């Protein structure tokens, strides 16, 4: 389904997953070249394993959402975290406790959002989140650009259609631009008080384990690091069974069904 948000242009594509309304809703935030469809069946499997409801949506220019209306700036992840994400939540799951599950760019967006300390945010799970730009990040992106130019990333068209060139250019050009080289969100980590599960593949080609250590060390709330062996940038795709178990256990620690409201005493 697509959603017309008054504060947003253009429409946003989303999917809702059924679950126990007494539990927090899991809100899935995709990677920089991702979309709802690229999560595969992982969101439904995690919702089934935890009993939680789920919400997946495509950010602007991703998947089935509408095109970009302006060039990205150094603040594009902040804009997604502080404007687009709250608008989606307030429209689709208002007054509902939620847990963010963010991959790569989605993980960074989740951290920026969590630093605002929203009252209904119960926890955050990140996989391959970035808090700064590393040399290996740029090396990995340059390799992706070479693969794209050689026609080796044609599968992206399946998910993003005619928007694929604009999306890829926005992603690669932003991260490789000199004005983005000093992007860093470590300053906001002490503001994060909710529980965190910080995951990353040990063989991630876009970021070192220092990303995980920094998040865990600087967050104010309880933060648990999980480095996944024999795994690159996409733990939920490369090691789904292991990652599902880790996330399920973490979510179970945060999800206690709300007690039923007792009936009023007899008059």
Provide a compact summary of the structure.
The protein is an alpha/beta fold. Helices cover 36% and strands 16% of the residues. The protein is globular and about 50 Å long.
Notes on the protein architecture:
The protein is an alpha/beta fold. The chain has one domain (2-254): Alpha/Beta hydrolase fold, catalytic domain (Rossmann fold, 3-Layer(aba) Sandwich), CATH 3.40.50.1820. The chain is built from nine helices and eight strands. It has helices at 42-50, 76-92, 105-114, 135-149, 156-160, 164-176, 210-218, 235-238, 240-254, and strands at 2-3, 12-17, 25-29, 54-57, 98-103, 121-127, 196-201, 223-228. The chain has an eight-stranded mixed sheet with strand order 1-2-4-3-5-6-7-8, with helices on both faces. Helix 1 (42-50) packs across helix 9 and helix 2 packs across helix 3 (105-114). The longest helix is centred in the first third of the chain and has 17 residues, at 76-92. The radius of gyration is 18 Å and the shape is globular. The termini are far apart.
Jot down its keywords.
eight-stranded mixed β-sheet; Rossmann fold; 36% helix; alpha/beta
List the helices and strands and how they pair.
Elements: E1 2-3, E2 12-17, E3 25-29, H1 42-50, E4 54-57, H2 76-92, E5 98-103, H3 105-114, E6 121-127, H4 135-149, H5 156-160, H6 164-176, E7 196-201, H7 210-218, E8 223-228, H8 235-238, H9 240-254
Parallel strand pairs: 3-4, 3-5, 5-6, 6-7, 7-8
Antiparallel strand pairs: 1-2, 2-4
């Amino acid at each position: 389904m697509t959603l017309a948000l008054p504060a947003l242009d253009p429409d946003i594509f989303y999917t809702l997953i059924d679950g126990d309304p007494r539990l927090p809703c899991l809100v899935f935030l995709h990677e920089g070249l991702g979309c709802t469809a690229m999560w595969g069946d992982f969101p439904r499997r995690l919702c089934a394993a935890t009993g939680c409801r789920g919400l997946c949506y495509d950010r602007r220019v991703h998947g089935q959402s509408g095109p970009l209306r302006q060039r990205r700036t150094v603040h594009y992840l902040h804009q997604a975290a502080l404007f687009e994400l709250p608008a989606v939540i307030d429209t689709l799951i208002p007054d509902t406790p939620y847990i963010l599950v963010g991959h790569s760019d989605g993980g960074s967006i989740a951290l920026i959002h969590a630093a605002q300390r929203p009252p209904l945010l119960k926890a955050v799970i990140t996989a391959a989140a970035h808090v700064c730009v590393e040399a290996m990040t740029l090396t990995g992106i340059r390799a992706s650009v070479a693969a794209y130019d050689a026609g080796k990333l044609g599968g992206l068209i399946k998910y993003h259609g005619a928007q694929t060139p604009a999306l890829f250019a926005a992603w690669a050009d932003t991260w490789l631009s000199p004005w983005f080289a000093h992007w860093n969100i470590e300053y906001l980590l002490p503001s994060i008080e909710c529980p965190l599960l910080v995951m990353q593949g040990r063989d991630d080609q876009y970021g070192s384990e220092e990303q995980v250590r920094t998040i865990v060390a600087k967050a104010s709330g309880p933060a648990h690091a999980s480095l996944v062996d024999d795994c690159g940038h996409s733990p939920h795709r490369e090691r789904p069974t292991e990652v599902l178990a880790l996330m399920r256990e973490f979510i179970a620690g945060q999800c206690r069904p709300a007690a039923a409201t007792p009936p009023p005493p007899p008059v």
